Write the structure tokens for this entry.
Amino acid sequence: MRTGPRKREAMAYFTVVIEGTGETYRSPEQRTVLEGMAALGRKEIPVGCRGGGCGVCKIEVLAGSYRKRVMSRAHVSEDDEAAHRVLACRVWPTSDLRLKVLGKMGKKVGAGDTAPASDGC
């Protein structure tokens, strides 16, 4: 017995605010934070490997929640992770986020702050 077409669940969108630049963008839940930042079209957003191995996209999540995938310990220590310093290519928003860019990306974007830990590449 056919019950008709399945209804698609509504996709969640979240607002991401980049501290220091004041930039804001809307991101669907299936887009990584880095993909959303790259979509802003700024040349100075380094993209790197997109797989968590190079460390150039390090951010600190100041507010909000996210889900994450494995990140290289060479670039994100356990202390970093506990302090919500993660790689933008390995996190997806699960709520609105406020973040600060760190390391090489922070210098290029002009956020003015750098991470205390290694920033890769």
